[in-house]
Structure formats: C-alpha cells, structure tokens
Write a structure and sequence with these properties.
The complex is a heterodimer of chains A (104) and B (130). Chain A is mostly helical. Helix content of chain A is 82%, strand content 0%. Classes of the chains: A mainly alpha (104), B alpha/beta (130).
C-alpha cells in the first residue's frame, strides 16, 4: 500500500514536470516553426533546402513526442515535399504548418 | 542490484531532455546523455552503460559511425544498442536485421512508455540489464 501510494505520488510529480517542460517546449517550437516558414516560403531557387530539410526533420521527430501532433505532421509533410521537390505539396504543408502554429 | 545505466545520444536537446526525464522518472534508471557521437565516446571512457540509445541522423559522427566506434571497444562489444529514428525507411528496413543493433525505437516516442519499449527490445537478448 505504502509503495503504491509512493508510486502514485511519483507519477503525479512526473506528469507535473512533463507538463512544465511541454509548456517550455511549446515556446521554442513556435519559434522553430516560424523559422521553418521563413526558410520555405521562398522561390525554390532562393530557398536553403538543406537548412529547411534539417529543421523540418527535427520538428517532425520531436514535436509529436511532446504531444504536438499537428505541427509534427505538417513538418513531416514539408520534409517529404522538400525531398520530392513537390512544390504544390510544399505549399499545402506550409499552409497546414501556419494553421498549426496559430493553434499552439 | 545495481541501477540500470543508460547512455542517450541525440543532437536534439529537446529529445534528450524528454527521454532523460522519462528514463529517470518512469524507468528509475541512471542516465548519461550526449549531444554528439564525439561527446558520447568521451562519456563512455568513464560511464559503462547497460544499454545505449542513439539517434541515427546526427551532424558530424552519425549513428552508424558511432556504432562502429563502440563495437571496436571490447568492454562495449556486447552492450545492447538501440537506434532512435524519425526516418520511417530506417525503421522499416533495419529493425533487428542491422548487424550490431538490437532494435529501433521510432520517433515520436511516448515518454510514458519509453522504458518499457527499451526493455521489450533488450529482454530477448539476455542483456546485463534486468
């Protein structure tokens, strides 16, 4: 009984800490997403594809682990669009990312 | 029983932070973390882990290069090594078939079940971790 109580308290503390770091991450995620929009919202010639690819890959891999699934999906679609040179797909994913940023 | 010791390697500090919190608080493991392959090799001089979790895509020394370096060391030759990757092609193609790798954990991961995911991979290996 004692151990169960202690385990439950420990879990509550963990969830509280998780919520705190999630709130901190939300702020930095918003900044990273805006940076990504800046990288991508250019003509294909002016675009720094490597930077955009690196950042979209990072956001896609990290945001969902923190529970920000819409952002992660948009970033993953951007990564796919960059790899496939799919400009219409990129524009659609960019619009989805903007929407996801506004909901953060 | 000595505590389970894990080395986490990822260039993304947000992932490192979340995974570390999960392994310490949920798994109650002793965790060391490194932001690069080079840093990981330095840590391994003084910290002998029971399992190593590493990101595949890292600037400089990537996961494959680090794997090669780790396997050269006799004291780490049998240490279970798990790749962590957001690349679905890596997840689909490699899995257990990649030599020297115990398994792949997909990103995103659920921080509540990460320790369980790790145990699920290494349990059949009869690793030192128990």
């Amino acid at each position: 009984m004692k151990s169960s109580k202690s385990s439950s308290r420990s879990e509550r503390e963990y969830l509280k800490e998780l919520e705190r770091i999630r709130a901190e991450y939300r702020v930095s995620l918003k900044e990273s997403c805006m940076e990504l929009v800046e990288y991508i919202d250019k003509s294909p010639i002016e675009r720094d594809g490597v930077k955009a690819l690196r950042l979209s890959h990072r956001i896609a891999g990290t945001a969902a682990s923190y529970g920000f699934h819409h952002v992660a999906k948009a970033a993953s679609d951007l990564e796919d669009g960059l790899l496939a040179n799919d400009e219409p797909g990129l524009r659609e994913a960019l619009s989805n990312l903007r929407k996801a940023i506004s909901e953060l | 029983m000595r505590p389970r010791r894990v080395l986490l390697v990822d260039d993304d500090c947000d992932i490192l932070f979340l995974a570390k919190l999960s392994l310490i608080k949920v798994g109650r493991w002793e965790v060391a973390s490194a932001g690069s392959g080079e840093e990981a090799l330095g840590i391994l001089d003084t910290f002998l882990p029971d399992v190593i979790i590493l990101d595949v895509m890292m600037p400089g020394m990537d996961g494959f290069m680090l794997l090669e370096q780790i396997r050269k060391r006799p004291d780490l030759a049998a240490t279970p090594l798990i790749f962590m990757s957001a690349n679905t092609r890596i997840n689909d193609a490699m899995g257990e078939s990649l030599a020297g790798v115990a398994g792949v954990i997909k990103k995103p991961f659920d921080p509540m079940s990460l320790p369980h995911e790790i145990l699920k991979i290494i349990k059949p290996l009869r690793a030192r971790i128990s």
